[in-house]
Amino acid sequence: MAISAVREYAHLTADDVEAIGEELEAIRQDVVDSLGDRDRRYVQNTIRLQRGLVAGGRVVLLFSGYRPAWALGTGLLAAGKIIENMELGHNVMHGQWDWMNDPVIHSSSWEWDIVGTSEHWKATHNYHHHKYTNIVGMDDDVGYGVVRVTRDQPWHPPNSLNLVWNTMLAFAFQWGVGVQHLEIAPGTINSSGWDEQKKRIGQFLRKARRQVGKDYVWFPLLSGPNWKTTMTANMTANVIRNLWSNAVIFCGHFPDGADKFTLEDLENETQAQWYLRQMLGSANFTGSKLMHFMSGNLSFQIEHHLFPTIPSNRYAEVAEKVQDVCRRWDLPYTTGPLYKQYWQSWRTIAKLSLPNRFLKATADDAPETRSEKMFAGEPRTYETRDGRRAGLVTALKHHTNPRQLQRITRTV
């Protein structure tokens, strides 16, 4: 099943975990101490770019009856919506720019360009997801209530349509995010009670009405005789944004190596233990600077989960330091090309459309679901032939190919 003893799974002592936590905290503090004009200019320029793309797209779409104008306007609008959601909305609402004390660029005032409200998203994402990351039964982002993504989720007949549900979620991702906090999906946590639920539904419907009116009524009407083509352009831009957002989020949480957890290890969890869980439960993907920017720098999902309130433009430099920590402590740093990470996510979703009895690996030893039980009967520590420090990475290699490594007598 999911990991219930994170430290034991990671092949670390309690002192090791605290030492790692101190290193990561020092990385975070270094960035906080250096924030200044460079970062301020970055977010301000990003806002100017995003608004320019959207305004340009809206103007071009006034002439959407012409195919080149339709294609150009759709592309500009889609790019603007992606930047607003990924690099601005998501990150601003995490409080990454609150240090500027700018009332416009602040987590308490930003409302983003999707049907869901910022208030709802901050509750489901900032609190539940980042506090209970990948803890089955506590983190609604584990499958979003409709997709089975780990063997720890019991199989039910609707899971046989896993690929269908995920395809629908990808195309309508903003709607999935919007309704998540309403607790109406069958697999989500429903604990708020009907009165609170009714209040949230009302808030969601009011926000969704404004978004639908903007994209599918008012801006199309401004195009006069071209209202139909402008409407289809707006719909296409929203779908492009939804598909990209879904890909980025899934690549950060569901490739092989993004581990799942149970509640057992959460009690009295220290900051250092929380850091370790974030490192093991997240995954990155590689790419160009443009790809990182268009993903909201969530291509550095590991760094984002370690330091969710650090400005996203700093993740690339932080990543080098985090990788160094992982190398020295022999911990996995899960990353790969976008296509590989997304393929692994879809492959897992396809596999888990079947009951566990039809799957080869166990719930403790599958590419997408591992636990400390996979090492039962194996030595707790190892060393490579060159005698360097060994930990989880070495243990995983030993587990798949015992002849590569030799045992040593030091115990944890």
UniProtKB/TrEMBL annotation:
Domain of life: Bacteria
InterPro entries cross-referenced by the UniProt entry: FA_desaturase_dom, Fatty_acid_desaturase
A Gene Ontology cellular-component term: membrane
Single GO biological process annotation from the record: lipid biosynthetic process
The name this protein goes by in its record: Fatty acid desaturase
One of the Pfam families matching this protein, by short name: FA_desaturase
Fatty acid desaturase domain location: 70-335
GO molecular function annotation: oxidoreductase activity, acting on paired donors, with oxidation of a pair of donors resulting in the reduction of molecular oxygen to two molecules of water
Transmembrane segments: none
